[in-house]
Amino acid sequence: MAVSSPGNRRVWLITGATSGFGRALAEAVLADGDVVVGTGRHTGALDDLVAAQPDRLQVRALDVTDTAAAAAAVDDVVDRLGRLDVLVNNAGRTQVGALEETTEDELRYLFELHFFGPAAMTRAALPHMRRQGGGTVVQMSSVGGQVTAPGFAAYCATKFALEGLTQTLAQEVDFGVRFIIVEPGAFRTNLFAPGAAYQSTPMPEYAATVGPTRDYLHSDGTQPGDPAKAARAILTAVHSSDPPLRLVLGGDAVDGILERLSAMEAEVRQWEQLSRDTSITD
């Protein structure tokens, strides 16, 4: 069944909506009465939500690493529903491996998934949001977009890149589009479940540093964060008249980011005079 005309309802496009944060957010948005177009590589996982909300949920098979298809998906939503109010770039996966363990193909794929796909969808959404007078782009990053850990080099690099892009967009786009970077800590999203977390082939030379991170993958199901509460927090930020550029989710993420910022300030202060002394002397 086709999704009904949105009327006064907001239209959300959520990538990676079949599980984890994407699924939790789709459920929260539907509970609020809005319209959702949810995408994923395998959309059967959303059949139950479609059956329950056939007039407000539509699914679309999409691999965001196909940037042409990603951009076309945005245009198609606007063509069929008349507008796009909230774009959520959520599709992603965990990758663990030291840089030396990570192949060229693995590294490039992760950038296609976490950076080039969201960039293509955001670029496609901006003209529509400009014409309609505004909108919101939610970039699902991670505490790993601010805090690094051994074995997450490729993963953190993609999230750092996405955050740099989005922070710049918030400065250069002045026609009513808001940007929210979501930085979750450890949540029970099955991100580390078998088949969900990708691991590069290990090298014994990195057993001491990356080994504990690989072991951490076995902790799935013990994370402190509640995805449903995270989804409600994201909705609160989207509905706010003054949303944050960065929305940190989870006490572990708050603690890690504050510690990183404090350490960064201390290091800059320690070397401040040397840094300033590099200016040209008149």
From TrEMBL:
<dbReference type="InterPro" id="IPR020904">
    <property type="entry name" value="Sc_DH/Rdtase_CS"/>
</dbReference>
<protein>
    <submittedName>
        <fullName>Fatty acyl-CoA reductase</fullName>
        <ecNumber>1.2.1.-</ecNumber>
    </submittedName>
</protein>
<keyword id="KW-0560">Oxidoreductase</keyword>
<dbReference type="InterPro" id="IPR002347">
    <property type="entry name" value="SDR_fam"/>
</dbReference>
<dbReference type="Pfam" id="PF00106">
    <property type="entry name" value="adh_short"/>
</dbReference>
<dbReference type="GO" id="GO:0016491">
    <property type="term" value="F:oxidoreductase activity"/>
</dbReference>
<dbReference type="InterPro" id="IPR036291">
    <property type="entry name" value="NAD(P)-bd_dom_sf"/>
</dbReference>
<comment type="similarity">
    <text>Belongs to the short-chain dehydrogenases/reductases (SDR) family.</text>
</comment>
<dbReference type="InterPro" id="IPR051911">
    <property type="entry name" value="SDR_oxidoreductase"/>
</dbReference>
